[in-house]
Amino acid sequence: MSFNYGPNYKALVSALQQGGTSTYKAAKDARQARGLGVSPMIESLGEKIDAPQSTEQAVLARFEKVKKDNETLKDRMKELGIEQDPVTEELEPPLEDPDVNTSGDIIDFIAGFEGFAENAYDDYGQLTIGFGTPATSADQTITREDAMKELSKEVMKFRTIVLEAKEEFGYDWSENQIDALTSFAFNLGQGNFNKLLTGDEGGLRGDEEISEMILEYNTAGGKVLPGLTKRRQAESDLFTQGYNP
Predict the structure, then answer these.
(1) Do 139 and 220 reside in the same domain of the chain?
(2) Is the same domain home to 45 and 143?
(3) Per the structure, how many domains does the chain have?
C-alpha cells in the first residue's frame, strides 16, 4: 500500500527541509487547506520570523541572558553557604590546583593554593601578604621573589612543628604525610593542627581518622569556601596516596 500526499503536504515537507520563513507559510497553508485554524505554536513561529532581529541585538540579548544566569547561580551558591573568596572575589581558587600525585614539592603545593598578593590584605583578622605569609603592616608590599623566600621560611617552621609531633606522639608518618600536614598547619595554624591529632576528647587519632578529619576544616567566617574544600581534599589525598614517581 502506498500513500499519495497532496500538494500542500509536499510543500510542507519541502519547506521543513529549507527552514526559515517558508516553513511557517507552508505549515499555515497546510492547516488552512484542511479547514483548520493556525495553531498557537505556528503563530508563535510566525511572530518570531516576521519580527527580524539584527545580529547585534541577538548577541546583546544572549549576553544579557548569560549575565542573569550567572547572577542566579551566585545567589544559589550563597543559599548553599558557599561564599566568594574574600580577596579575589572569585568562586574558584586563584590558580589551578596542584597535581598532588606528581608534584612532590610542598612549596609549590602551598603556593598554588595561596596565590600571590603583592599588597598586604586582611585574611579573616590576620594581616597577610605574598603567598599567605604574615605581613608587617597594612601598607606593606612584596615582590614575588621575596614572597617565595618568606613562604619557604614559614613552611620550614610548620614542617618542624609536624616533625616534633611525629616524634612526641610516635607517629610513623611518611614524607608525603608530613607534607600534607605541613600544608594543613601552615594554613590553619598550630592550634588546629594539634586539634586535628587529638580531637575534642584529647586522645590521639590514627592515620585513617586524621585523613578523614582533614576534610572537615573547609570553612572560614562560618561559611564553606570552595577553595578550602579543594585544598582539604588535596591534602587528604596527599596524606593517603602520596606522590607518584
Answers:
(1) yes
(2) no
(3) 2
Of residues 196, 205, 210, 203, the one with CA closest to residue 239:
210
Question: Does residue 180 surpass a pLDDT of 90?
Answer: yes
The dihedral of CA 175, 180, 181, 183: what is its sign? positive
Query: 70 lies in a domain?
Result: no
CA 195/CA 168 separation, integer angstroms: 15
Contacts of 108 (CB under 8 A, 6+ apart): 98
Cα–Cα distance, 190 to 128 (Å, whole number) = 17
What's the pTM value of the predicted model, to 2 decimals? 0.59
Could you give the CA distance from residue 171 to residue 169 in angstroms, rounded to a whole number? Answer: 6
- Please report whether residue 64 resides in a domain: no
Residue 114 belongs to a domain with what CATH number? Answer: 1.10.530.40
Mean pLDDT within 51-69: 57
Same domain? 127 vs 234 = yes
Q: What are phi and psi of 164, to 5 degrees?
A: -65, -40
